Amino acid sequence: MIGYYLKGRRFEWMITIAMLWLAVAIMISPGIIHASAFQWLTLVMSPAFVVAALFGVGWVRLIGLLLNGHKVGGQRIGPIIRASMAALCAVMWAQFDLALVQLSFNQGYMSPGIPFWSMFVLGELDVAYRAVAGNEGSG
Length: 139
Known about the structure:
The chain has helices spanning 2-6, 10-28, 38-41, 47-67, 77-107, 114-133, and strands at residues 71-72, 75-76. It is mostly helical.
C-alpha cells in the first residue's frame, strides 16, 4: 500500500518532509532563520512568512501526494496539486539559491550549498513536468 504512494515520488516525499521539518524547527528555534544564507531571505521575507510558506506548501504538497491517482469531481487532482507545488517550490528554492549566491559574493567564495539548491530547482521542474505529463513512475 505505501509503495503506491512512494513509487516514482521519493524526491517529492523527501522534500515535503524536509519543508515541514524546517518549518517546525524555525517555530521551535526562530534563530535558525538568521543563520547562514537564511539571513538574506529575511531581507525580503519575514521569518513568519518563511515559516508559513514552508508549512503551507508542505501540507498542500503532502495532500497532493496522498491524493495522487484519486479523482475528485471526475478530475485527477493529485497530479495537478503536485505539479503546482513543484513549480512553486522551484521558485522558493531559487530564492534560497540566490541567497547563497549573495552570501558567496560577500564572503569571497562560493557557498557549497549552491549546487544542491540549484539541483533542487531542476528536480522540482522535473517533478512538475512528469506529474502533468503522466510519466510519474520514473525517478
